[in-house]
Structure to design on (760 residues):
């Protein structure tokens, strides 16, 4: 009784909006050389050298109960930092945050899983990390096991799980927390198509029950489908806050036309501006613009740059991102090629020819203009090109190694010849697990 | 500025959060912190269970391991101090165990917690929960080992020291609570500080070695206070201001008895004829003074450790 009234006192009513952010500013220290130990600090006397990096600048907004809000912005715009502050992982350096309701954050699936513990033990551990009491976990236990499809492996240590099972278990736990506010960071981009559609379905169910959802995503289509409102972040500031369709359009414009290039130069994080990128296009071997390609297709990235002041030499390059992180980086200077000298106002076009040795997925290309030593960045246009690689039969993974198979000794069989059965089905980790589950 | 100020607080889980749009006062902030901790009690239970389970998951002897170390150390120290370098206390093994088990709890808990934050970086960067759960779960799992070890040696203690011990159980319980508070305070302080000063985890090994000998565990306190030279007097002062001395004394006086200099002993007498030994054991209860000092040390250390931990915790996600 006493405990109940104490809890009543400590757990006041649920009035007010779901999330209020007021004047939020977040700093990061980028250490040049971080003295990690006490000895080094004493030894050097001087304070460590670092740059103060403002990840979020005076961000304010209010999210009402039942709203689904997408936060979009290019890499480094501060959207993930914002989500971490909302999830209370990072404290607010300045400004105030108010959150009314139980929060569950899906920043990484299975973040709290312990490999040595069984699936059953991990459900309890992870549920507790996400804020459930034991009784609540007991109640949800069957749903979680059912959704993850791991019943035969409940008492197996999770380090023996396939990656598909691992991800599904993580998602099943998180989605069953049944929070008032759900924070999601790109996690829906993991797993195969079937898993993605299943998780999207769950998110829609959430929305229908009047829960508040905040999503950070690169997937503009998903944001437009799921959210009624978007907040566009740029250089740590809110540049748009309104209906999803307009926000997505605004963001596309921000990315595409280089709007705000000047603004970016002001904050210094997007190049010194001696050279600017006018246009970037992706074409196939017939010089037609493409966005959808097949694995190992030959492609050409065409970058047009213009010097704003006279430049003796510069280098044009690009980084390729996708899957789990950066995949590839190339600069003309690394190939012994420079661009220049350029007069003020003079333009140059650089072609980067490459073969997309990657398998199905989305990839992003960031063109960069630098000095010949690739130290000073003249211009960067993050994720200017999106490449969608379509699925192809015969292999799975990230890199297309263009494998072919043969039986060099012993008898061989033709299984599902290409003429009669069509392409061999793409491997799905889901089905594989289910097959194993059925066999066990 | 939002209108949501004042008393519009929110329910929070371990993964849930609340903050206010008006800066919370210190009382309010503490209330919120304690509420978060209360809501995360299931997580604390899970973490303690995990500590205990993972540790013995792949070992054949399991829990026996946590008894084997003190057992072996008891044998070694008993051989050395009861037969080689003679410290003439009765039942040296019982004398030793009554202090050593407390020390092992303190040392294992603190040395384990110091890595609790830096070793869980992935978790800290990805999910929110009250961070003090990490060091506290190490302390509590070590407390389980400590209590089990006490239980395991209790038949031996009863056999050598008599049923008297049973009457002293309430005092032993008080000692357990006090030493756990003290240990938790030190554990939180060092776990938090180690994120910024990574040298601590190396330094602590040395500190504990010195601290072990600066605490009357393998020798009786009376042996130092009685000695009559400057060095010994300095040592006696250091020892009497060492909080671990107070906790060890509470346990030792309850479990074993107080070791005192025998008034019948005659230092000028040499040889077989001197029957009265130098040291003798007196049955006594810990003094109110001793209990008061231990209580103050436990409370202050816990509060300071908890407060400092929260100060350090602001940077965990950025620095870990």
């Amino acid at each position: 009784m006493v405990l109940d009234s104490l809890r009543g006192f400590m757990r006041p009513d649920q009035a007010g909006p779901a999330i209020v952010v007021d004047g939020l500013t977040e700093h990061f220290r980028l250490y040049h050389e971080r003295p990690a130990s006490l000895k080094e600090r004493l030894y050097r006397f001087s304070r460590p050298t670092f740059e103060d990096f403002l990840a979020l600048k005076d961000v304010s907004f209010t999210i009402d109960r039942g709203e689904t809000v997408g936060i979009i912005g290019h890499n480094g715009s501060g959207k993930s930092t914002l989500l971490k502050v909302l999830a209370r992982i990072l404290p607010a350096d300045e400004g105030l945050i108010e959150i009314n309701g139980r929060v569950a954050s899906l920043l990484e699936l299975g973040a709290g899983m312990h490999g040595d513990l069984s699936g059953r033990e991990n459900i309890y551990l992870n549920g507790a990390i996400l804020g459930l009491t034991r009784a609540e976990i007991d109640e949800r236990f069957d749903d979680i096991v059912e959704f993850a499809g791991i019943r035969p492996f409940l008492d197996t240590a999770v380090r023996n799980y396939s990656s598909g099972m691992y991800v599904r278990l993580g998602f099943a736990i998180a989605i069953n927390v049944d929070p008032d506010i759900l924070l999601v960071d790109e996690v829906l981009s993991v797993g195969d198509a079937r898993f993605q559609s299943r998780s999207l379905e769950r998110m829609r169910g959430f929305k229908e029950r009047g829960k508040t959802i905040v999503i950070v995503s690169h997937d503009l289509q998903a944001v437009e489908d799921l959210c009624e409102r978007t907040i566009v972040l740029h250089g740590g500031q809110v540049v748009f806050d309104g209906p999803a369709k307009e926000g997505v359009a605004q963001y596309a414009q921000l990315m595409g036309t280089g709007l705000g290039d000047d603004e970016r130069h002001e904050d210094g994080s997007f190049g010194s501006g001696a050279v600017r990128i006018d246009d970037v296009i992706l074409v196939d071997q017939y010089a037609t613009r493409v966005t959808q390609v097949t694995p190992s297709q030959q492609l050409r990235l065409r970058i047009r740059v213009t010097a704003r002041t006279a430049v003796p030499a510069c280098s044009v390059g690009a980084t390729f991102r996708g899957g789990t992180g950066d995949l590839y980086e190339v600069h003309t200077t690394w190939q012994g090629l420079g661009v220049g000298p350029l007069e003020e106002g003079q333009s140059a076009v650089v072609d980067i020819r490459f073969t997309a040795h990657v398998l199905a997925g989305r990839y992003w290309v960031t063109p960069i203009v630098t000095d010949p030593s690739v130290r000073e960045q003249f211009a960067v246009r993050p994720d200017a090109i999106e490449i969608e690689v379509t699925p192809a039969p015969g292999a799975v993974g990230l890199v297309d190694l263009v494998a072919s198979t043969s039986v060099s000794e012993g008898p061989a069989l033709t299984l599902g010849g290409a003429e009669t059965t069509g392409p061999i089905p793409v491997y799905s980790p889901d089905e594989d697990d289910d097959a194993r589950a059925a066999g066990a | 500025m939002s209108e949501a100020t004042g008393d519009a607080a929110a329910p929070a889980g371990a993964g849930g959060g609340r903050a206010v749009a008006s800066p919370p006062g210190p009382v309010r902030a503490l209330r919120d912190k304690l509420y978060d901790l209360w809501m995360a009690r299931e997580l604390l239970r899970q973490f303690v269970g995990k500590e205990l389970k993972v540790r013995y998951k792949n070992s054949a002897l399991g829990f026996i391991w946590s008894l084997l170390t003190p057992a072996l150390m008891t044998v070694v120290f008993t051989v050395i101090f009861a037969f080689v370098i003679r410290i003439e206390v009765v039942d040296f093994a019982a004398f030793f165990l009554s202090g050593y088990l407390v020390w092992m709890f303190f040392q294992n808990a603190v040395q384990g917690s110091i890595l609790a934050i830096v070793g869980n970086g992935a978790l800290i960067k990805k999910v929110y929960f009250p961070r003090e759960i990490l060091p506290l779960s190490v302390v509590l799992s070590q407390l389980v080992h400590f209590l089990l070890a006490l239980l395991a040696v209790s038949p031996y203690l009863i056999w050598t020291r008599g049923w008297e011990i049973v009457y002293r159980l309430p005092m032993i319980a008080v000692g357990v609570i006090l030493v756990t508070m003290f240990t938790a305070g030190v554990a939180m302080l060092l776990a938090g500080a180690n994120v910024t000063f990574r040298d601590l985890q190396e330094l602590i090994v040395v500190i504990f070695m010195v601290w072990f000998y600066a605490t009357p565990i393998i020798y009786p306190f009376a042996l130092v206070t009685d000695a009559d030279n400057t060095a010994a007097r300095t040592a006696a002062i250091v020892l009497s201001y060492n909080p671990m001395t107070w906790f060890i004394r509470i346990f030792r006086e309850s479990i074993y008895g107080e070791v005192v200099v025998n008034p019948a002993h005659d230092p000028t007498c040499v040889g077989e004829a001197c029957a009265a030994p130098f040291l003798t054991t007196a049955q006594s209860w810990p003094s109110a003074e001793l209990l008061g000092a231990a209580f103050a040390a436990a409370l202050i250390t816990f509060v300071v450790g908890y407060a400092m931990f929260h100060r350090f915790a602001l940077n965990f996600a950025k620095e870990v």
Observations:
- The mean pLDDT of chain B is 82.
